[in-house]
Design goal:
Layout lengths: L1 H18 L8 H25 L6 H16 L4 H27 L1 H11 L7 H21 L3 H25 L2
Helix pairs in contact: 1-4, 2-6, 2-7, 3-7, 4-5, 4-6, 4-7, 5-6, 6-7
Length: about 180
């Protein structure tokens, strides 16, 4: 995670330097508050998708992905590892997708690329679409708060909640 996300940070900073894009954090209090709120919205939507949503097309494949791919990868992480992975993912991915791709390409293309980037490693089209929607929400958050702090916090806290759920669910199932 550190190497992969570190590479994203390197690409984002290189791109921003090359193209003259400045990273703006936005207001601290607003960024933290909006970021935590968005994390709760995304985590609630994800929990609904995994537990309560009707088995509409795509939903079973997302649930299967969580059990077959994500639980083996993230299910045994310690809380410290979850926090570190979540933080570096929030920073690396938001600097790249919302920090440089969104200003260069626009909200929709950056969100679409974000979704496509999450389809590797056993991801499904339905999961890619769900991540694209999340990317769009993070992109709107960056626009609304005029900076990257809120989407970084939202992304990191959402990832921590999702990985904690995966860890808890794995332990509950006795895996």
């Amino acid at each position: 995670a550190l190497i992969g996300e570190g590479l994203l940070v390197f690409v984002a900073f290189t791109w921003s330097w090359w193209r003259g894009i400045d990273f703006a954090l936005g207001g601290t209090a607003k960024g933290v508050a909006y970021g935590l709120f968005m994390a709760a919205v995304l985590a609630g939507a994800n929990f609904y998708l995994l537990i309560r949503a009707p088995a509409l097309p795509g939903v079973p494949s997302i649930r299967r992905l969580y059990v077959e791919v994500m639980q083996p990868v993230f299910g045994n992480l310690s809380m410290t590892e979850i926090i570190v992975v979540s933080a570096v993912a929030g920073i690396g991915e938001e600097l790249l997708f919302r920090g440089v791709l969104q200003p260069e390409l626009g909200l929709f293309p950056a969100s679409m690329i974000f979704g496509l980037a999450h389809m590797g490693g056993g991801g499904t089209l339905a999961f890619g679409c769900w991540v694209m929607v999340m990317g769009g929400m993070l992109g709107i958050l960056a626009i609304a708060t005029e900076g990257l702090l809120a989407p970084i916090i939202a992304h990191a806290v959402y990832d921590a909640a999702a990985m904690s759920y995966i860890r808890w669910d794995r332990n509950e199932r006795g895996a």
